Inverse folding.
C-alpha cells in the first residue's frame, strides 16, 4: 500500500523554526521527485517546493525562498522541510506528495498543520 | 508567480455536465501539455483526477475529462453526482521550473 505520513507540525512563534518530516512506504521512494504543498485555512492550494530523486534538484516558491529548505534521505524513505523565520502567513496544512515526471502530484499524505502565532 | 485563474464556483443539477476553466499564460498552461486537476473534499487531502491535460489515472471515473486550448485548460464533469460536490484545482509547471495552482473552484450539486 502506497503511503505518505507527515509529522512535525505544531504551534510556533513568529520568527521560529520547525522541521516537517514525511515517511514514505509502498513505492520506490528513491526513484521519484517529491514535493510539499500547503493550504492556509479556508484557502486554496499553494505549491511550496519540490526535490529531485537524487537530491541535486530543488525549487522553491518565491514566498518561502531563503527561509525553507527541502531535503530527503533515500535510505530512510523520508522527505523533510526545514522551515525557519516563520511568519503568520505560513500558517497552513502542509502536504507531502509524490511529484511525478508529468508534473502531477500523484500521491498525497494526510497533511500536518503548522500554526505560526504568538 | 500568480495563481492560475479559475471561477470561484460552479453549480449544476444531478446528471448535468459542468465545465471548469483554468486560465494561465504562455509561460505555464499554454507552454506545456502538463496541466493537472485535483479534487478535494472538505477535510481531506487533494486527489489527482487528471494529468497531462487529459489523462485519467487508474481508478478515476470517465465522467471526468480534461482539455486545453491555448492558455486555457478545462475540466468537464459529465453526469454530475452528489459525490462530485468538492473543490477542484488545476496546476501547471512554469517556465521558471516552478509549479502553480489555480485558485480553486467550488462545485455545488443543486
Amino acid at each position: 500500500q502506497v503511503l505518505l505520513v507527515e509529522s512535525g507540525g505544531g504551534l510556533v512563534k513568529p520568527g521560529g523554526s520547525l522541521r516537517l518530516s514525511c515517511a514514505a512506504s509502498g513505492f520506490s521512494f528513491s526513484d521519484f521527485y517529491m514535493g510539499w504543498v500547503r493550504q492556509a485555512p479556508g484557502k486554496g492550494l499553494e505549491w511550496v517546493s519540490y526535490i529531485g530523486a537524487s537530491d541535486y534538484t530543488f525549487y522553491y516558491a518565491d514566498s518561502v525562498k531563503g527561509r525553507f529548505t527541502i531535503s530527503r534521505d533515500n535510505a530512510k524513505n523520508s522527505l523533510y522541510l526545514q522551515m525557519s523565520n516563520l511568519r503568520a502567513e505560513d500558517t497552513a496544512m502542509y502536504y507531502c506528495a509524490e511529484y511525478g515526471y508529468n508534473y502531477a502530484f500523484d500521491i498525497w499524505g494526510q497533511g500536518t498543520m503548522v500554526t505560526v502565532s504568538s | 508567480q500568480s495563481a492560475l485563474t479559475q471561477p470561484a464556483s460552479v453549480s449544476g443539477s444531478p446528471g448535468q455536465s459542468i465545465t471548469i476553466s483554468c486560465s494561465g499564460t504562455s509561460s505555464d498552461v499554454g507552454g506545456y501539455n502538463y496541466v493537472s486537476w485535483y479534487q478535494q473534499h472538505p477535510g481531506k487531502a487533494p486527489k489527482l483526477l487528471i494529468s497531462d491535460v487529459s489523462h485519467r489515472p487508474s481508478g478515476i471515473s470517465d465522467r471526468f475529462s480534461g482539455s486545453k486550448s491555448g492558455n486555457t485548460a478545462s475540466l468537464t464533469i459529465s453526469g454530475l453526482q452528489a459525490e462530485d460536490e468538492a473543490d477542484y484545482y488545476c496546476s501547471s509547471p512554469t517556465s521558471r521550473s516552478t509549479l502553480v495552482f489555480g485558485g480553486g473552484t467550488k462545485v455545488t450539486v443543486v
Observations:
- The interface with chain B takes residues 35, 37, 44-47, 50, 59-62, 95, 100, 102-106, 108-111 of chain A (CB under 8 Å).
